Amino acid sequence: VGRDRAVWFLLGDWRGPFGNEGRVGRLDAEGEISWFRAADELPDYQVEDLLADRQGRLWFATPGGLSCRDGRQDAGGRFRHFTTRDGLPVDGLTCLYEDVRGDLWIGTESG
Q1: What's the confidence (pLDDT) of residue 106?
Q2: Which of 60, 71, 74, 94 has the most crowded CB, counting CB atoms within 10 A?
Q3: What is d(CA 75, CA 30) in angstroms, rounded to the nearest whole number?
Q4: Among 58, 111, 104, which Cα is nearest to 89's?
Q5: Residue 110: which pLDDT band, with cuts at 50, 70 and 90?
């Protein structure tokens, strides 16, 4: 659940209902669902993990790198992408975790 009380969720995986194409959904406080294809906004169509942090940002771990959507109203929902070119040790990401200090931990295909 994001700061705006919207619920974000993932549908689909390698064998999921959308084939090899994941979809991300957003259920807003009024009960409206909006969809976007992961491939339209993210560096990879497969989303491994999704995390809403305490600052209202939404993080996506994909085999193609890390993406962050700033959920603040003034940010306009823009995405920022991070890959090995930005300092990640590998692009293949598998999981995300925010600790009690607000630090983001990232699991990779390489451990």
Answers
A1: 95
A2: 60
A3: 21
A4: 111
A5: confident
- Rounded to whole angstroms, how far apart are CA atoms 92 and 46? 11
Rg, the chain, Cα only: 14
Quote the pLDDT of residue 13: 55
CB 4 within 8 A of CB 71: yes
Please check whether residue 57 is in contact with residue 69, taking contact to mean a CB–CB distance below 8 angstroms.
yes
Longest dimension (CA), the chain: 41
Q: What residues contact 74, with CB distance under 8 A and at least 6 apart?
A: none
Q: What is the pLDDT of residues 24-66, one digit of tens each?
A: 778 888 888 887 666 667 777 778 888 988 888 889 898 899 9
All residues at 6 or more sequence positions from 80 whose CB lies less than 8 Å from its CB, including other chains: 67, 68, 70
